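All the exercises in this workshop are built on plain-text protein records. An example says more than a description, so a record of this kind follows:
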Amino acid sequence: MFDDYEIMSTIEMVKNENLDVRAVTLGINLFDCVSHDLLIFKKNIRKKIISHAADLVQVCDAVGEKYGITVVNKRISISPIALVGAPFSSDQMVEIAHELNDIAKEVNIDFIGGFSALVEKGMANGDKALIAALPRALTETQRVCASVNVATTKAGINMDAVLEMSRAIKKAAALTADDDGLACAKLCVFANIPEDMPFMAGAYLGVGVADAVINVGVSGPGVIKQAIERNLKEKNLTLGQIAEIIKRTACKVTRVGELIGREVAQNLGIQFGVVDLSLAPTPTVGDSIGEIFQALGLTHIGVPGSTAALAMLNDAVKKGGAFASSHVGGLSGAFIPVSEDLNIAEAAHKGYLTIEKLEAMTCVCSVGLDMVAIPGDITVECLAGIIADEMAIGMINAKTTATRLIPVPGKKAGDKVYFGGLLGEARIMDVPHSDLTDSFVTFGGRIPAPIHSLKN
């Protein structure tokens, strides 16, 4: 139970500190829609998704209005299309993507995730078809998001898949050259992907989840920043005390998400899943992860001390969320997407945050190299090497890592790119040795799982 002060402070978060429910995501199982006939399959998935999602936006808006808390994004995640659409060719996979995009428009949701494959141990025919379809599917649709899991701590890293994803990313960028490679902003490559994540572009519904489930993503970087600054004005604090403030604040934010999520689920007659408390920024001033680092006394994110500060922030957020809810899942921690956070984008532009430092920080954050615009002439091999490095961090540390890299055709380090909306804008980050064609990534096969994968 919260006392009066805590209730009032939560109201203040909503009014003045950019607290919102960042995403309500309806997960829908499509395995009962399977058919070898493409027309029947598309008809089945349309019927199944619309039957569950027809009222999603209306209910989210009504619940948000009731409590005065905005539900910013309404989304759908589905079973991995590479599995439920396994019989189909790459061209047919593109048709499925178009159908999903049309369904998303019909029910008026922002994004639909699950154009996905799980290939950490190898690629089946459906996986190969989906990966081959990615460039066209993401270019020709607006609301479809894709993810491919190429590594786990238990299985190791599928280097064949890493190289194929590098090629797919380059093709997707080329097809959307006029939009600064925008298709790549809807594609994540994962290690240890969660099965219950409400955040795009990686969301999909895992095979061990209920037929339909509501997952909630709550974000509050502005709230965390304000809490730190407010308390530092009043007294001198140690880092342990600051971590406690972050933890308590995260607890309140998680309670808000659980309240909204459970009521949306109840009104839709659907099972409630998890709260994902991930500090996800927006391009709005005051809603920034980077500004939290400055509140902690650092000049910019990326300077010495940044990795330690991020580790403290991530841990405190998880502890606060775990206390507030028995069903915390997804990623739950801190995102550091470069283009989606004006403060982080500025730090990268000024040279405080390099791609090497960003990679180091992903060892302790929730995701990885997220929304990073890089020179368009980077080689497939160099791009695959960057992806493989990030996958190794996830595999060895038994954590989720990902890349959302955007090689912008015709542009070089320092050039500005604009993606629009929540995707924001940024300068292209320099990638040292981006012209290398080293053969390491072309050997293929699997990098074996680490010894601690044998834990059982």
User: Anything to note?
Assistant: Residues 340 and 420 are 9 Å apart (CA to CA). The mean pLDDT is 89.
